[in-house]
Each structure stands twice: as structure tokens, then as C-alpha cells.
Amino acid sequence: MKKRILITGAAGFIGSNLIGSLLRDGRYYVIGLDNFDAFYPRADKEENILCFAGNDNFRFYEGDIRNMSDLDALGDIDVIVHLAAKAGVRPSIKDPVICQEVNVGGTQNLLEFAKKRNISQFVFASSSSVYGINQNVPWSEEDKLLPISPYASTKLSCEMLGHVYSHLYGIRFLALRFFTVYGPGQRPDLAIHKFFKSIINGQPIPVFGDGSTSRDYTYVDDIVSGIEAAISYEASIFEIINLGNHQTVMLSELIDAIEESCGKKAVIDRLPEQPGDVPQTFADIQKAKKLLNYHPSTDLKTGLESFYSWYLKTRDVQN
Ligand code: NAD
């Protein structure tokens, strides 16, 4: 019997990469749910999942995680991988209420659904942003958490909700804290995608601050391998695990690497640092190595080249 995996946010960046990998694996039946949230174009998301249409091991439902009736329409499920969210720090500062409704309300609704259906495994997409401004690098799951954006605080709330449901109802809850994910299909609001697009089109790239901020960029296939390990993890009932690359790259270095990938110089539009953005992210991945046998293997140069070739193939839908 194939394991039946519900992926929320299935038409998004990470969701669609995960579907591809699970279907290639062959041991899974995948149920995708997405409401095509208007944060970025529906056409991009439809393109992300177009290649799975007609696959007998995949079924897609258009629906909203906040509506129990949309969840009730789904077939049998063994594991929930919950990726749907109002993503991004800046939009959450503009509209914190909707961010809370979707991220926290939607997660609670899914946990209620898991309880009702006796679904015993729940993998949740958390975020490195829960650490806030943490000088204590690399960031360990044991560190103190002080989020500095509404988005980050919703992710932390969801981790705590997961703990409640694992404690009360025995639902295994694994919160995976993703560190800046990039690769084919990356969201158009994220730096790497925005920078490639602008540089290729000869437009200035917005650079917030002096370029010294740094991020632990993690290639999407590495994140997908961590999610897949979490789908099968059974050693404990509740865990919070960093999924990063354990390498930090300064914004100025990232721009140099993108210029090299596409063979064009960037025109820089320097802007003030953004409220809610943290100066650095840096994952300690010892726990992921131990519990999930997680070993990220894609370096930045290879990952950027892979993003670039995807971008060139699909850019007709990017504009
Ligand atoms: P994405 O925006 O590409 O995917 C999220 C998907 O969720 C979208 O397709 C959207 O339409 C869907 N969605 C939004 N609201 C919904 C709702 N109410 N009901 C059903 N579907 C809904 O984002 P992504 O980059 O693939 O991120 C996936 C998850 O990983 C998110 O939870 C995000 O917060 C988290 N995360 C991402 C990163 C990153 O760098 N991309 C880093 C940390 C955490």
C-alpha cells in the first residue's frame, strides 16, 4: 500500500518540488491542496504542478486550509505535510491579521482535521525567522526565540500548537525550520529570483542595507530530502528541527555569484534596511543530521545555475 501524503500549499515553490520527488520515489500517493493565494500569480502555481496532471498517484484539490468543508472533501490520508501559508516577512507587517488567520487559524484547523481523521503524523513548515535577532551563531533549536515580525510569530505559535496536539492527542508533530530556500520554482518575491529577473532585464536590483546581511541559503532538493525523512520519522512524538545549509553568504557575495551565473553586472538600487528583516541567519544542523540523516549537498554555485536554467525555460510565465 502506498503511503498517502496530503501536501498543503502543493502548488507553491517547495510543495511542487516535494510532489515531484515523492512521485519519482514511487512509494507515495500524493494529495495536493492549494487555494492559489493571490500573493503571486496563479499562472506560476498552475505551471508548477502542470507536469503532475494525469499522474495516477497524484490528485489535486483547490481549497482553503481555513475551511473544514474543503478538508472534509479530501480522501484517506496517512501523513500531513503542511506547507500552505501567507509567506514572507514584509507582507506580514502590511497585513498581520490575515497572516495570523491563515498561518495560525489554518494550522489549527488542520490539526483539528488530523485529530478527527486519526492522522498520526504532521510535518510542519516552520521558519528560521522564529529566532529573531540571535547573535549566538550557529542557531540551535535550544536557543531563546524572540521573533521580530508577525510572520515569525505565527510560525512560533504553530510550533506550540503542534506541541499541544502531540501532547493531548498523540499526533506526531515535526516542525522543520527552513532557512532561506532557493532553487527551481522559487517564489518571485524572494531575493535570488528577483535579482536574476532584474539583472537579466537590465533593471536595478533593490538592495536593503550595505550588503553585509547574511543568509544560510538552502537548496530546495536538500529541504525536500529533510521533509521526506520527516514523513517517515517515528522515533519521538514532537521535534523541532533546523533544515539549513550551515553556510552563511553575505548579500554582496550572493550578488557577485548571481552576476557570475548569468554573465551580467547588476545595477544596484541601495535602500534602507527593512523592519522585520534579521541581519543574519545561520543553522546548526547537528540535530537534523542525527534524527533525519540530513546532509545538504548542493553548493551555492550549483544551486544558482540550476535556478537560472529553470528561469530561462519558464520565464514566459514569469513576467
Ligand atoms: P509559496 O507561497 O510558494 O507556497 C505556499 C502555497 O500555499 C502557495 O501556493 C499558496 O497559494 C498556498 N496557500 C496560501 N494560503 C493558503 C490557504 N489559506 N489554503 C490553501 N493554500 C494556501 O511558499 P514556499 O516558499 O513554497 O513556502 C512553503 C512553506 O515554507 C511556507 O509555510 C513558508 O512559510 C515556509 N518557509 C519557506 C521558506 C522559503 O525560503 N521559501 C523559508 C522558511 C519557511
Helix/strand class: alpha/beta
Report the top-level CATH class.
Alpha Beta
CATH architecture: 3-Layer(aba) Sandwich
What general form does the structure show? globular
Strand content: 15-25%
Q: What is the tally of beta strands?
A: 13
What topology, given as strand order, has the largest sheet? 3-2-1-4-5-6-11
General description of the model:
The model has no long low-confidence stretch (mean pLDDT 96). The chain has a single domain (3-318), classed as Rossmann fold (3-Layer(aba) Sandwich). With 319 residues, it is α/β, with parallel strands linked by helices. The N and C termini lie far apart (42 Å). It is built from 11 helices and 13 strands. The strands form 4 sheets. A 7-stranded parallel sheet has the order 3-2-1-4-5-6-11, with helices on both faces. Strands 7-10 form a two-stranded parallel sheet. It has a two-stranded parallel sheet with strand order 8-13. The structure holds nicotinamide-adenine-dinucleotide. Nicotinamide-adenine-dinucleotide binds at residues 8-9, 11-15, 33-37, 39, 45, 64-66, 83-85, 87, 102, 106, 125, 127, 178, 180-181, 187.
